Amino acid sequence: MTYENLDEKLVNELLGDGRASLRSLAEDLDVSVTTISNHLSELEDEGIIQGYTPKIDYDAVGYDVTAILQLKVEGSSLVEVTETLSEHHQMVSVYETTGDHDIIAIGKFRNTDDMNETIKNLLTDPEIKGSNTSVVLNPAKEHEQFELDIA
């Protein structure tokens, strides 16, 4: 039994198969099922593992338009606008950023009409002082997580 870097190894195993059983994880990592269970609980309690969700191919279910919104926002309203975007179900990522824009949001849409309507509704917020929208032509890499380095 080896516990060195167990948490990192456990996370990496789950990245490969998020539905792996405790028993198979224990076998792969050469530790007991109880050890795996305890470490998983700790990783979840610490917020390192935040859930187990399926990886969705949005194109396959009809959301084949991806838009990147870059927004300039009145400084005092940054949190409010960020929260509004975050609550929108089609926004898959929302970032507060440095540089020319204050917020970058990435959304998935069924078609350009859906995208256009959604963006126009969002841009009615008077706190948004400027915007730039780009449509993704071809995602080279998307929604990927990476394995943790093991010392």
UniProtKB/TrEMBL annotation:
Domain of life: Archaea
PANTHER family: LEUCINE-RESPONSIVE REGULATORY PROTEIN (PTHR30154), TRANSCRIPTIONAL REGULATOR AZLB (PTHR30154:SF34)
Gene3D superfamilies found in the cross-reference section: 3.30.70.920, Winged helix-like DNA-binding domain superfamily/Winged helix DNA-binding domain
NCBIfam families for this protein: TranRegLrp_Halo
Database matches in SMART domains: HTH_ASNC (SM00344)
UniProt-recorded name of the protein: HTH-type transcriptional regulator Lrp
Residue intervals of the HTH asnC-type domain: 3-64
Gene giving rise to this polypeptide: lrp
Cited Pfam families: AsnC_trans_reg, HTH_24
Keyword set includes Transcription regulation: yes
Keywords: DNA-binding, Transcription, Transcription regulation
Species name: Halovenus rubra
GO molecular-function term, one example from the UniProt record: DNA binding
